[in-house]
Amino acid sequence: MGIVLKSERELAKMREAGLIVRAVLDAVEAACVPGVSTAELNAIAERELRRAKASSAFLGYAPGGAPPYPAVLCTSVNAVVVHGIPDRRQVLREGDVVGIDFACYKDGYCADAARTVAVGIVSAPARALISATQECLERAIRACVPGARLGDVGAAIQGHAEELGYSIVREFVGHGIGRAMHEPPSVPNHGREGSGLRLRPGMVLAIEPMLNVGGADVRVLHDGWTVVTADASLSAHVEHTVAVTDDGPRVLTAA
Fold first, then answer.
1. How far apart are CA 37 and CA 46, in angstroms?
2. What is the predicted pLDDT for the residue at 155?
3. CA–CA separation, 37 vs 73, rounded Å?
């Protein structure tokens, strides 16, 4: 499957899905308080998904021989980088950080976004990590203009993260998105300016920086999904679905 450029009609459809994703994440973020289980967060996402008459992009997803993903939401706490599975036994505590990742389909088109949320009062290093990860995403979005290169997007993330002393997760990347959740091209969180695929109007990318306080190495737990930092250091993950247009980047999952 090659890269599929989206028409304005298709971008409007993806925007509808993107607004649902944002609304679901808003509802989940509001519930990220001490004493709430990650299973309860998933139940909130399920409720909002039903209200929107949309369908989950995560539930049952099973790429490359992985077991079917069992929830509509990913909840990644502290040293979990991405793909944490909601669990009634996992209860949020004061000072935790939790990545909430959600994607859905509406009328055949997909949108995908993630946030890392502070639970109660968190440490200064945790606040700084969340802020830096968001800044990396914002810089990457600004690079999404016609004529730029895919390497410019990765370089924007890598340069800022490493300047601040954070490591970049390289084994997991962003992706194209449209009628499928994962479409070409892969969107690495590292790169060299001026290298790689040239960006064109109609391309839509899910850009998702993943930054670690410690080393860059990660491992996947026995459940086949949960990705954790190898050194148990804190991690953060944020994501938006972004369209490349003649008028500049258009964030389909923002307000």
1. 15
2. 98
3. 13
- Token pair for 15: 């925007």
Q: How far apart are CA 174 and CA 188, in angstroms?
A: 6
Tokens matching residue 45? 């996402």
| Residue-wise DSSP of 71-139 | -SEEEEETTEEE-PPP-TT-B--TT-EEEEEEEEEETTEEEEEEEEEE-SS--HHHHHHHHHHHHHHHH
Q: What are the structural domains of the chain?
A: 8-251 (3.90.230.10)
Q: What pLDDT digit, counting tens, does each position of 72-97 carry? A: 999 999 999 999 999 999 999 999 99
- Does the bond joining 185 to the residue before it have cis omega, within 30 degrees of 0? yes
pTM more than 0.90: yes
The tokens for 218 are: 């990660």
User: What's the pLDDT at 65?
Assistant: 86
